[in-house]
Amino acid sequence: MQPKANCPTSCGNVTVSFPFGLESGCFANLQMYLVCNPEPAPVLQMLGGAVVTNISIDQGILHVLKPSNQSHSLTDIYPSLYAISGDWGGRVDLKWAVNSSTCLVATVYKDSYRCSSYSDCIEVTDNKTQARVGYRCKCSPGFGGNPYIKDGCTGMISRKIQREYKLLKIVMIDTVIV
């Protein structure tokens, strides 16, 4: 699945990248849907109300402020694709997975596999219980970008390949013309 064109990419000072999104067609699944509350100052929230202060696609971490009136654990509210990675008093780091299957199973079913070319599948586990949460994607070494978007991982290696391909194409055209 790819996001629709022209998805909003920020809320206040927080960048929102696919697989997360702010409107229908812009997120990979419902647990990745975030709400931007514009008043009085823009605040990005998960559906359960937790405030998101940062999203790291590369590290697979959401920085979330703990709601002050919360009687349940964040993983009770967001059970299946999230696990607490660190608790820093008022802020919690949530590890997230884009899908609940394993990398092995996900790569067999290419139609639902979320990782794009030049990216790797990373198993996500709960630090406390070692329970499997699912998988996420990360651009391969030497590449950067968003591994959830088609051709989203680019880097020095791909630029070199593109340059060599252009040179080869020029040589082939010159050969055909001569």
General description of the model:
It is a single chain. The strands form five sheets. The protein has a four-stranded antiparallel sheet with strand order 5-6-8-7, with no helix packed on it. It is globular, with a radius of gyration of 19 Å. Strand 11 (143-145) and strand 12 form a beta hairpin. Helix content is 18%, strand content 32%. The protein has helices at 74-77, 103-108, 156-177; strands spanning 10-11, 14-15, 34-37, 43-46, 51-56, 61-65, 82-88, 91-96, 119-125, 132-139, 143-145, 153-155. With 178 residues, it is an alpha+beta fold.
Q: Enumerate how many helices there are, as a single number.
A: 3
As a percent range, the share of helical residues equals: 10-25%
Indicate the radius of gyration in whole angstroms: 19 Å
Pick out the low-confidence regions.
Answer: none
Write down how many β-strands occur, each being a DSSP E stretch of 2 or more residues.
12
What distinguishing features does this structure have?
178 residues; alpha+beta; 18% helix; globular
